Amino acid sequence: MSKQTITVIKGDGIGPSIIDSALEILNAVGCDFEYEFVDAGLTALENTGELLPQATLEAIERNKITLKGPLTTPVGEGFTSINVTLRKKFNLYANVRPVKSFEGTKARYDDIDIITIRENTQGMYSGLGQVVSEDGSEAEAMSKITREGAEKIVTFAYELAKREGRKKVTAVHKANILKSTSGLFLKVAREVGERYPEIESAEMIVDATCMKLVMNPEEFDVMVTTNLFGDILSDLCAGLVGGLGMAPGANIGQDAAIFEAVHGSAPDIAGKNLANPTSVILASIQMLEYLGEADKAERIRNAIAHVIKTGDRTTRDLGGSHGTTDFTQAVIEAL
Ligand code: ATP
Ligand code: MG
């Protein structure tokens, strides 16, 4: 069997240091991948004059599997988000963002196990009809939901629930106010839910969901929602398990998948060896599971759990006083 090649984009800010950490751990657990390193984001802009060079797009397409650090999109006119562009370009319609408690974090709960499934290509992030009036006094953006898009993402959520032995899928919406877009999403979610009688179907308005997640997170199992709500809710969920350093995400499409951290490039701590690499290590665990290497994934998860529980070599955000490299070394030793 030929070796699996993985496209690696180290990214901006804390990206290179947390991606290096993940790659060291993949090697330590005995993964025999080829890596093809390509650039995107600010790093690519500086090197090639382009945010998303053609060679990068070709590598993502050719190798099908990408591990990616956070990318910075320059603020201002003419730059659309690189992450959004990648998701749309490769039709990575499903964004899978699991959060799970690890013993030893400073989180308020110790039994969180929630997967947010975020629709990744439509809704408020469609980039459609974004206009500002000439004098800058009015701005307008359009949101688009299609029956096909909603059906695909909700079906994805139920299939994942079935495969992973999950009990409940909650569709999160704002159909009472956003009657057309969120209304269509909810209608389709109800229809799809009826095809899965063995899984409990629930629906909840997004604002109430925020409150419930904070007060009674044990009521949630799998959540499925539209783009903007999924973005916000998944950061909230990251907060339930100790912060953004603990939150991975997989962007899945028919022909390609990109695994990444939920957070951004964290410029405030970049280059200081302070970042918690767990988010992107957990993303590489999602990648291993996707590739059918569940046993290696499990071993890495156990090693992280051990290091966080022991607590003497963790990063600042986890209450420790150690750097990215120390934490990585501790995980490798625990393996
Ligand atoms: P973006 O617009 O790209 O999402 P942002 O301004 O929201 O960027 P993030 O990079 O998402 O910034 O980070 C938000 C906060 O969380 C920052 O204070 C950052 O330092 C912290 N943070 C993010 N990732 C990590 C991490 N892996 N380890 C420790 N702290 C992190
Ligand atoms: Mg952010």
From TrEMBL:
<dbReference type="GO" id="GO:0006099">
    <property type="term" value="P:tricarboxylic acid cycle"/>
</dbReference>
<dbReference type="Pfam" id="PF00180">
    <property type="entry name" value="Iso_dh"/>
</dbReference>
<protein>
    <submittedName>
        <fullName>Isocitrate dehydrogenase</fullName>
        <ecNumber>1.1.1.41</ecNumber>
    </submittedName>
</protein>
<comment type="similarity">
    <text>Belongs to the isocitrate and isopropylmalate dehydrogenases family.</text>
</comment>
<dbReference type="GO" id="GO:0051287">
    <property type="term" value="F:NAD binding"/>
</dbReference>
<dbReference type="GO" id="GO:0000287">
    <property type="term" value="F:magnesium ion binding"/>
</dbReference>
<dbReference type="GO" id="GO:0004449">
    <property type="term" value="F:isocitrate dehydrogenase (NAD+) activity"/>
</dbReference>
<dbReference type="InterPro" id="IPR024084">
    <property type="entry name" value="IsoPropMal-DH-like_dom"/>
</dbReference>
<keyword id="KW-0560">Oxidoreductase</keyword>
<dbReference type="GO" id="GO:0006102">
    <property type="term" value="P:isocitrate metabolic process"/>
</dbReference>
<feature type="domain" description="Isopropylmalate dehydrogenase-like">
    <location>
        <begin position="5"/>
        <end position="331"/>
    </location>
</feature>
<dbReference type="InterPro" id="IPR019818">
    <property type="entry name" value="IsoCit/isopropylmalate_DH_CS"/>
</dbReference>
